[in-house]
Amino acid sequence: MSLNVVIFGAPGSGKGTQSIMIAEKFGLKHLSTGDLLRAEQEKGSELGQKIAGFTSQGNLVPDALIIDMLANVLDEQPADTGFIFDGFPRTVAQAQALKEMLAKRNKGVSIMLDLMVDEKELVERLLNRGLTSGRADDNEETIQRRIQVYHSKTAPVKDFYKQEGLSTDIAGSGAIDEIFARICAAIETV
Predict the structure, then answer these.
(1) What domain range includes position 78?
(2) What's the confidence (pLDDT) of residue 89?
(3) pTM for the complete prediction?
(4) Which positions of the chain have pLDDT values less than 50?
(5) All residues at 6 or more sequence positions from 15 whose CB lies less than 8 Å from its CB, including other chains
């Protein structure tokens, strides 16, 4: 069975940075729902405009839109492809949908990595990213809203993966390479 990793954590926890490194080291296809959603918005399509209506307010994009988008991406890949899911699932309903989507393709989640970072550090990281990347959603008000949404809607996903026996906490503070070493050690146990 192919390796399928869910990387989890609050906005600014380093999911994107670590996902790229994990994908390269373990030969996985990096699926960043954030990147997929931003690309759709940049196209200016009807779907992109719908997505922008949610993200500009710091809200989550509805499950059905994301699930359809991801199913299309999964079906475009060879059957033996392993994935790292970055930014998905964000709700328990999405976690259940991912489980079903993978099961239909004779796959499953191998491990869920939860990057644990102090909230003050998250805000600092996101404000700095906003200065360097120019991402419009990296401002104080939207950051606070995204962290609030994370705690209310996304944090229960961790319990879902704990019940599945797949959740692993990773200390997400420190140097990028130190965090990556902790992640690799966890992945190598599966």
Answers:
(1) 4-187
(2) 92
(3) 0.85
(4) none
(5) 7, 8, 9, 86, 87, 115
